């Protein structure tokens, strides 16, 4: 069974809007590239899929855009080539090496997790909340930014039940950001 990992940038006050934290730098992009490459497939909701596709899909010209720095290209290539699953009831189709996931979310994700491999990676806000509520996330990774945003959306807002976590790993960046990885504590009867 492959684990489902949830990874996201978050400010110290819990804001997980993609523009609220520090701008990406070489070190953080290397880190996120390694995370992308650790996954067999990416799992997105519609909003995150469309946002990532608009930023990181390789243009038809087969040349990365001029705005992209050289150190961003490995991340762009990793996400561009990754297998993607998109949970959406409103999209009629997807491409970009993607497949739509429909029907019962819990059953569909459980089927994906039962395939062999290194793991699935999920990002975003809404879909991870639903997956956390279903108890399907095996690892949480927060890249905590040394920023107070003062606004939302906030991390896992609306979670139905408290999830106790145990630390697994920690990585400090020169920027002051800290990647913290946790696993849910399994309660045994």
TrEMBL record:
Pfam families listed in its UniProt record: RibD_C
Lineage top rank: taxon: Bacteria
Domain Bacterial bifunctional deaminase-reductase C-terminal residue range list: 6-169
Cross-referenced SUPFAM superfamilies: Dihydrofolate reductase-like
Coiled coil: none
Stored PANTHER family: BIFUNCTIONAL DEAMINASE-REDUCTASE DOMAIN PROTEIN, DIHYDROFOLATE REDUCTASE FAMILY PROTEIN (AFU_ORTHOLOGUE AFUA_8G06820)
Protein name: Dihydrofolate reductase family protein
Organism: Streptomyces phaeochromogenes
């Amino acid at each position: 069974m492959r684990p489902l990992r949830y990874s996201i940038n978050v400010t110290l006050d819990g804001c997980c809007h993609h523009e609220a934290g520090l701008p990406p730098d070489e070190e953080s992009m290397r880190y996120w590239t390694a995370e992308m490459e650790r996954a067999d497939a990416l799992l997105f909701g519609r909003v995150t899929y469309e946002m990532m596709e608009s930023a990181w899909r390789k243009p038809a010209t087969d040349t990365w855009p001029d705005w992209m720095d050289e150190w961003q290209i490995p991340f762009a290539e990793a996400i561009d080539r990754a297998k993607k699953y998109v949970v959406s009831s409103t999209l009629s189709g997807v491409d970009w090496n993607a497949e739509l996931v429909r029907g019962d979310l819990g059953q569909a994700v459980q089927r994906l997790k039962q395939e062999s491999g290194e793991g699935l990676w999920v990002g975003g806000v809404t879909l991870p909340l639903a997956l956390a509520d279903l108890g399907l996330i095996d690892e949480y990774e927060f890249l905590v930014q040394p920023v107070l945003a003062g606004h939302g959306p906030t991390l896992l807002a609306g979670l139905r039940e408290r999830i106790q976590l145990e630390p697994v790993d920690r990585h400090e960046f020169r920027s002051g950001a800290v990647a913290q990885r946790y696993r849910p504590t399994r309660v045994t009867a």
